[in-house]
């Protein structure tokens, strides 16, 4: 009898192996990533199928290297004079926004992306008035005058949990009753059975300058949040208005109580960017005793978010130099530094530690800078 | 359930043993007069629950382990011709059909539901681990033919009722393209898994075709092999998460005691 199952196993394996059909052509059509020399930030919106490219020097003939699903191809909808597909160069001189069509290996699935070339400076005052997108979750414009830059948040990651039935269910949402006009509400949420499965039981409400890479939201969540945008002025202080309500006792990633009450967090950080596409990730202030990220030069951070009740509370946080670090003025003017601005309803939310219900409201935030001699910063 | 089957098996063996002497002098005479044969069988099910044919989404079967799947059966055969070559058999079988597989799939349509009623849909490319452990009460209705004193073949339909079922697993190492083929790729790596459990979506009633043969080793001892081929989907009709039908195909091997 002992030998029988082994023998059968062999036969059944052969049976199965012979049953495997010819591989079907891949049906996936999407731009998974986009990079290129001179790009210091790329923001991709998979729902709207838009990609914003941010450059410092305006060449307008841009190298674009696309990461596509296996077998997929990409081409611009209409070609421009300066296009050189062999060298991945695309001409944005005539049109700053161009359409690109991705075709899946099967030749059937296609997706059209709008890719826009931007040379823009990071604004320094934020009122959170305008929505780029309302549903399924809010995306808030960062720029008030021109509708270009947007605040990043972990909302695309929360969408995976299936817990967002309305925009208000998401951790990050706009509110109509801000300190002045509209504002932002960040709330730590329960991620349900999906979150439990992947040991990410909570999702802190967060809002930051940078981009959220949902591809890594489950595999390596700390690297999904890319904080920062080039900044060429010397920041002095961050001011604004907030309200905070703790959700109570914190729990860890496995749902165990931690015995301490949750607090919120917000900060602005000026950091050296060793390469043009370098950005800080969610691990900039480790909680396990490792030192903070070595590239951080200036920090303006709330020491503790007080329980404010329903009263908007003013904050004024000076940028303090990190010990042993100085700002190289010339490098600053040349775009070698980036500014990260981050708000979170749970201070350790990046490590999935916090309390469901912790809420941080934010409005009318300003980054005050030294008087600039650089006219482009006006 | 497995423990239940084992204990029932032990009880039946005990009953069979004590009943033997009674049968020896009374039952067998009656049975012989009526052209009836009784048999008690124990065996193991080895096989799988699989879509047929394997859809193109399944790229490879990376590992397969038969689960501990035992069966016990009591059956009666009525020989209908004077030569006792042709007969009709009716049985009652308690059995489990179990397997564990790991497969690599490409663009496998899936939905992950959460306990709040929300869902995440998409196409999965990567590993899928499946555990099936299905316990059935089965009635085979077989035509039997005796080739010789020792050899006998049988074939016919069987009807099963699901007593208890577990069909669950997880996806690992790969990416979910959500919500559709033009959506975002979300990577799962290392310890990241997304579990699924379709146990509540299993169909209670199953039927199929069984065919096989048995060989009489000694006067009372038989050895048998029967292929059981399921002919309806193991999942309920309204279950759409797995886009193709799954069928149970198992080989039952074992021995029996012929009274």
Task: Please report the total strand number of chain B as a whole number.
Answer: 10
End-to-end CA span of chain A: 85 Å
Biggest interface between chains: A-B, 50 and 48 residues
CATH class bucket of the largest domain in chain A: Mainly Beta
In CATH, the homologous superfamily of the largest domain in chain A goes by the name BT2081, beta-jelly-roll domain
Helical content of chain B (DSSP H or I, runs of 4+): 10-25%
Weakly predicted, low-confidence segments of chain A: 1-5
- Helix- and strand-based class of chain A? mainly beta
Q: From the 3D structure, determine the CATH topology of the largest domain in chain A.
A: Jelly Rolls
What CATH architecture of the largest domain in chain B do you see? Beta Barrel
CATH class of the largest domain in chain B: Mainly Beta
Q: Helices and strands of chain B: which structural class?
A: mainly beta
Oligomer: heterodimer
Largest sheet of chain B: 8 strands, antiparallel, barrel
- Beta-strand residue percentage of chain A: 35-45%
Total count of domains of chain A: 2
Question: Helix proportion of residues of chain A, in percent?
Answer: under 10%
């Amino acid at each position: 009898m002992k030998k029988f199952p082994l023998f059968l196993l062999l036969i059944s394996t052969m049976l199965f192996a012979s049953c495997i059909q010819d591989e079907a052509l891949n049906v996936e059509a999407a731009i998974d990533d986009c990079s290129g020399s001179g790009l210091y930030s790329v923001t991709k919106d998979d729902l709207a199928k838009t990609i914003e490219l941010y450059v410092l020097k305006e060449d307008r003939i841009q190298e674009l290297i696309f990461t596509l699903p296996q077998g997929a191809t990409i081409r611009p909808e209409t070609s421009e004079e300066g296009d050189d597909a062999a060298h991945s160069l695309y001409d944005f001189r005539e049109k700053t926004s161009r359409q690109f069509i991705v075709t899946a290996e099967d030749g059937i699935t296609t997706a059209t992306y709008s890719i826009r070339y931007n040379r823009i400076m990071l604004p320094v005052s934020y009122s959170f008035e305008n929505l780029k997108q309302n549903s399924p979750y809010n995306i808030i414009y960062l720029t008030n005058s021109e509708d270009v830059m947007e605040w990043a948040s972990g909302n695309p990651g929360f969408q995976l949990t299936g817990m967002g039935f309305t925009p208000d269910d998401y951790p990050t949402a706009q509110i109509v009753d801000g300190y002045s006009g509209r504002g932002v509400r960040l709330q730590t949420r329960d991620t349900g059975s999906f979150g439990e499965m992947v040991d990410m039981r909570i999702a802190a409400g967060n809002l930051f300058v940078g981009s959220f890479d949902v591809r890594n939201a489950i595999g390596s969540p700390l690297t999904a949040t890319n904080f920062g945008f080039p900044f060429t002025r010397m920041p002095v202080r961050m001011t604004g208005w907030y309200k905070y309500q703790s959700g109570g006792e914190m729990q860890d990633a496995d749902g165990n109580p931690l015995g301490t009450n949750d607090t919120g967090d917000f900060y602005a950080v000026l950091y050296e960017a060793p390469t043009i596409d370098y950005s800080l990730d969610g691990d900039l202030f480790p909680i396990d005793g490792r030192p903070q990220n070595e590239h951080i030069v200036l920090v303006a951070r709330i020491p503790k978010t007080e329980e404010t009740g329903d009263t908007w509370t003013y904050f004024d946080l000076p940028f303090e130099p990190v010990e042993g670090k100085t700002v190289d003025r010339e490098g600053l003017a040349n775009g070698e530094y980036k500014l990260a601005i981050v708000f979170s309803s749970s201070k350790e939310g990046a490590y999935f530690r916090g309390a469901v219900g912790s809420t941080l409201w934010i409005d009318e935030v300003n980054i005050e800078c030294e008087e600039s001699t650089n006219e482009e910063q006006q | 359930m497995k423990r239940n089957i084992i204990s029932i098996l032990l009880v039946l063996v005990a009953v069979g043993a004590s009943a033997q002497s009674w049968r020896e002098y009374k039952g067998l005479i009656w049975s012989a007069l009526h052209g009836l044969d009784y048999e008690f069988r124990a065996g193991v099910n080895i096989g799988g629950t699989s879509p047929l044919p394997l859809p193109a989404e399944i790229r490879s079967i990376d590992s397969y382990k038969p689960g501990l799947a035992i069966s016990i059966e009591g059956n009666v055969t009525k020989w209908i011709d004077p030569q006792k070559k042709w007969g009709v058999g009716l049985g009652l079988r308690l059995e489990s059909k179990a397997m564990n597989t790991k497969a690599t799939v490409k663009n496998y349509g899936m939905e992950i539901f959460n306990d709040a009623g929300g869902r995440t849909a998409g196409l999965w490319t990567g590993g899928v681990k499946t555990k099936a452990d299905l316990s059935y009460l089965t009635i085979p209705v077989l035509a039997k033919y005796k080739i010789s004193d020792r050899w006998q073949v049988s074939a016919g339909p069987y009807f099963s009722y699901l007593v208890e079922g577990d069909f669950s697993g997880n996806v690992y190492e790969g990416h979910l393209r959500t919500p559709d083929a033009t959506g975002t790729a979300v990577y799962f790596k290392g310890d990241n898994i997304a579990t699924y459990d379709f146990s509540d979506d299993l169909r209670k009633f199953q039927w199929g075709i069984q065919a096989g043969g048995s060989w009489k080793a000694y006067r009372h001892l038989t050895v048998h092999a029967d292929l059981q081929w399921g002919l309806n989907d193991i999942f309920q009709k309204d279950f759409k998460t797995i886009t193709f039908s799954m069928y149970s195909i198992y080989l039952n091997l074992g021995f029996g005691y012929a009274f």
